Task: structure prediction
Amino acid sequence: MYKFLKKTRRGGWMSLGGILLCMTGSEAMFADLGHFSQLSIQIAFTFVVYPSLILAYMGQAAYLSKHHSLETDYRIGFYVSVPEQIRVPVLAIAILAAVVGSQAVITGTFSIIKQCSALGCFPKVKVVHTSSRVHGQIYIPEINWTLMLLCLAVTIGFRNTKHMANAAGLAVITVMLVTTCLMSLVIVLCWHKNALLALCFIFFFGSFEALYFSASLIKFLEGAWVPIALSLIFLAIMYVWHYGTLMKYQSDVQNKVSIDWLLSLGPTLGIVRVRGIGLIHTELVSGIPAIFSHFLTNLPAFHQVVVFLCIKSVPVPHVGPEERFLVGRVGPKGYHIYRCIARYGYRDIHKDDVEFERDLVCSIAELIRSEKRGSSVDVMEEVEDDDERMVVIGTTSSNLEGIKLCEEEEEEARCSDEVRTSETVVKSPERLKAQAELMELMEAREAGMAFILGHSYVRAKRGSSFIRNIVINYGYDFLRRNSRGPSYALCIPHASTLEVGMVYHV
Result:
């Protein structure tokens, strides 16, 4: 009798895992909120999905009540209970439902990976925005191929729908349990409600979910181990990438060069200033990157005009040309060093080097002209950051009095002559200096622009622990070499590119 009750109790406990699978399909439907409105999903669920589920479950229950005397009644599947006349149409509908459910899972995966990558918790991947209006509609080729390979591996490895159902059930109930725990934090931290309310919420819903979770864990060896193994693998990847990225960023910030060091070098920076514009790509939006001092230490010459360029992506479809560049000075005017932050939307296409060079030089010229006039006619916005005055300048303005840098292709050939033959009367030293600075900028542009890409690497310092060596020297280095680089690097001409690397020992 005791063995019978124990077996019955275990069977009822394990049946909770089967009951859990009944809600997984309808739960996946709500992942499509990024593609459909809430009202459309409510209408579809009320008038189509819910009646279909009720009819299907009632039909299966009726079949089980009539054939419960079979020896293999506990193995009766859904398609056995479907009449033979409509079995093929039901199978076709099930395949279409699986396609819709998989699409919801794929969309959710894309969104999570993009957010993790933006937070520095996942290696950089290619993100393709499929909509110009909705920011959340994206496509990630690498993740799509990874999901396909994982699906094939699980299908070929299990060859059993029961094991795959056990894996899906544990994954779904784990998501629900984690969501309940995080929701309690939202109640306290975001909604500023009483902590007692959050505890009541987590105890009420968490008790039911913990029940289903324990029932799914019983089937750990029958396929439920797959989501746990995959979660541990992705957790290790995310931890290694986040830790390495954090160490690299901290090293970049700690090794920034102070403005006092730059001032001590003098206007010539202690070296020979050659003709041309040196464009240094950096991820820092303030301060002087360590790669610049590393370059000056190892090379005897540098360009007469230096621009620290930082390219940022913003969560809008397009950034207008009048708001593209955020420009400012680094150091005194005689040093001819500028900082430029170029902002691009997720649907913007990076321009070629000629067009980008023209817009960048025109924005710097606008900065010089606005300082000369002591006004902000073309300045859209001003930002003060670390004693640096950054301004958003429109590059399409044609109201350039006296000294001009043209933007149109047909006017580009006569820009130099217009600068040199300007008949503007300069009545103050400031205007004279501004005119001389603009002429030097134009001469530097005619001499050419060199693109300098700075790469910083991290290595575990001598005496570090074994785990730290593995994480930094092997794990993070492997992910860095196999992750996608910045998109702007593809638009830079290789003939004018110089790559400079630095190694930080952390």
